[in-house]
């Protein structure tokens, strides 16, 4: 499956006159190809084990059932969508896993390269930080917050292209 990174600048309006926020950046974090391959191999091996010395239906039924189960699991792993939207008043929002963040509370931001991922997620990690991370996405975007009402010190978001994410969300602020 392919990563979907779509910068776009389309705005639209609904028939009742309200404006729809424009999507500036969108990225779906698909499970990598090797997980799909491993799932297919696992399904074939298990289905073959069920079918030993039996008729073909002992292969077909487990193949379909286990294939659907493994496919559902891999799609569930691929559910994360990172999106940046801009409202008509100019407010930009970062939307990840049901959480949203306005650009007005971000004090600093930077892209965390793959080489610094281990340190960012290791001992230096603040337990109050908001994390969205996957083992197959090596780079991250770090957003340090300046909001006295929110105890969250920063967001660390996995991204295939953190520079484009930060440029869409907080243009000109990326370190």
In words, what does this structure look like?
With 175 residues, this protein is α+β, with helices and mostly antiparallel strands. It folds into 2 domains: 50 residues; 88 residues, no CATH class. The protein is 29% helix and 28% strand. The protein is built from 4 helices and 11 strands. A 5-stranded antiparallel β-sheet has the order 1-4-5-6-7, with helices on one face. A 4-stranded mixed β-sheet has the order 8-10-11-9. Strand 6 and strand 7 form a beta hairpin. Helix 1 packs antiparallel against helix 2. Keywords: Membrane, Transmembrane, Transmembrane helix. InterPro entries: DUF3093. Pfam families: DUF3093 (PF11292). This is DUF3093 domain-containing protein.
Structural descriptors:
175 residues, alpha+beta, 4-stranded mixed β-sheet, 29% helix
Strand and helix map with partners:
Elements: E1 4-5, E2 12-13, E3 19-20, E4 22-28, H1 33-50, H2 57-77, E5 81-86, E6 92-96, E7 99-102, E8 106-112, H3 117-120, E9 130-132, E10 140-145, E11 154-158, H4 162-169
Parallel strand pairs: 9-11
Antiparallel strand pairs: 1-4, 2-3, 4-5, 5-6, 6-7, 8-10, 10-11
Rg over CA atoms, rounded to whole Å, is 21 Å
With helices defined by DSSP (H or I, 4 residues minimum), what is the helix count?
4
Give the biggest sheet: 5 strands, antiparallel
Name the helix and strand elements from N-terminus to C-terminus, one letter apiece: EEEEHHEEEEHEEEH
Shape: elongated
Poorly predicted sequence stretches spanning 5 or more consecutive residues: 8-17
Number of domains: 2
Query: How many strands appear in the DSSP assignment?
Result: 11
End-to-end C-alpha gap: 31 Å
Helicity range: 25-40%
Oligomer: single chain
Share of β-strand residues: 25-35%
Structural class assignment = alpha+beta
Global mean pLDDT: 87
Largest beta sheet: strand ordering: 1-4-5-6-7
Protein name: DUF3093 domain-containing protein
Keywords: Membrane, Transmembrane, Transmembrane helix
Transmembrane segments: 33-51, 57-77
InterPro entries: DUF3093
């Amino acid at each position: 499956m392919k990563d979907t990174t779509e910068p776009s600048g389309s705005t639209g309006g609904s028939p009742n006159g309200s404006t729809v926020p424009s999507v500036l950046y969108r990225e779906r974090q698909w499970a990598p190809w090797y997980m799909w391959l491993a799932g297919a191999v696992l399904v074939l091996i298990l289905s073959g084990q069920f079918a030993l010395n039996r008729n073909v239906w002992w292969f077909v039924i487990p193949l379909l059932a286990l294939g659907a189960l493994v496919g559902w699991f891999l799609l569930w792993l691929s559910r994360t969508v990172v999106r940046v939207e801009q409202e008509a008043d100019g407010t930009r929002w970062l939307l990840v896993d049901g959480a949203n963040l306005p650009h007005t509370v971000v004090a600093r931001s930077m892209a965390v390269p793959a080489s610094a991922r281990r340190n960012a997620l290791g001992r230096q990690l603040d337990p109050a930080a908001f994390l969205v991370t996957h083992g197959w996405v090596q780079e991250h975007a770090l957003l340090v917050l300046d909001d006295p009402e929110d105890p969250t010190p920063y967001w660390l978001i996995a991204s295939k292209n953190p520079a484009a994410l930060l440029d869409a969300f907080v243009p000109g602020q990326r370190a």
